Amino acid sequence: MSTMVATTLQRCRRLYRRIWRRVGPRQYPVPDLSREAVGPLEAFYAHRGTPCLIHCRLADCRWFGPTGIAYGRDSLHPYVQSLRQYLDGECRSYRGSCLEAYWQHWQPATLAASLGVPLESAHPWLRLAPPLSDFMPWSDVRQLHLLRTLAELASQDNGEEPSLISETTVRQVGPKPDWFGERRLNQLVALHRAILQEGYRQRASQRLEYFHQHIVIDTLARGDEVRFVVANGQHRASVLSVLGYASVPALVHVSHRRGPSLVRREDCLSWPAVRQGILTADQALEIFDRVFEGRPPPGFPRLARAGEATPAPRELEMTPCAQVMPEGSPTDRH
């Protein structure tokens, strides 16, 4: 019953978004700082936290969630490596791809395991709830409400699957059905073909909504250093990594329901999960530092690379996701 309700709600949300995109008001133009040497922190203060377009390095961007997987030319992101396999003729479908291997090998059973929090020290809710796509220590309080609901359902132990989310919602963990993997790979291939033919839209129309203009990133600040988490545009970031782009224009300080668009390490005691006692400050900071530095959680499998044999399940060593690359790109086009 709960699965049926969740599916119905998900379809209603999709329908609402489609209608809103057609009849809803357009966003106002955003300040374009992508041609200036302006970082996200300067943009935040100069424009009072309103959305801005800046230039950011793909190697400094991370997949949304606790995996710490980076983008960029040397990225081991399964989207990036699967697209490389397709272009090299190594695989022509999802079966046998690096993405299939990733979803087969990374299947944490609980939210605690996906976050890298030891079970013996994890909050009971984290031990009971399944992985969530949008849960981070600094996530919106709505994620805590969902966590509590899932944990309570799991604690009832009535033999039913205690989940209000579909199997395809949490893309950072497996398993996933074959049709979903095929759809992801087909989308990557189609986007790669479009960018090759038309060039990446460096100057998207301001009449489009924020989330349809450019890659949207959240900023992680640790002192004077910053890294980014891709909140929207995972496929674009992956294709541009394959094409050799070192940096791209991206929108920062865009409000969304997942949580704040600017996360400061020194504010950890104010993060909802810490304030509510779901995570200790040390646990929250460890997750922040891992994502910031591009390190995977404990137990994470070694990521497959195009041209290599598929790694055996549960291999624990992981090659660094990306190196810092110089600015510029051989394929920058408008």
Describe the structure.
There is one protein chain. The chain has one domain (2-10, 29-57, 77-242, 252-293). Strand 3 and strand 4 form a beta hairpin. The chain has helices at 2-23, 40-46, 78-87, 98-105, 111-115, 124-128, 141-156, 178-198, 210-213, 234-242, 272-275, 281-293, and strands spanning 52-57, 61-63, 215-222, 225-232, 247-252, 262-264. By secondary structure, the chain is an alpha/beta fold. The chain is globular, with a radius of gyration of 20 Å. Residues 299-334 are annotated as: Disordered.
List keywords for this structure.
334 residues, alpha/beta, 6-stranded mixed beta sheet
Structural class of the secondary elements? alpha/beta
- What's the domain count? 1
- Please count the beta strands (DSSP E, at least 2 residues each): 6
Which runs of at least 5 residues are low in confidence (pLDDT < 50)? 312-334
**Shape, please?**
globular
Largest sheet: 6 strands, mixed
Helix-strand topology string: HHEEHHHHHHHEEHEEHH
* Helical proportion, percent range: 25-40%
Instruction: Average the pLDDT over all residues and give the rounded result.
Output: 83
Rounded to the nearest angstrom, the radius of gyration is 20 Å
Name the beta content range. 5-15%
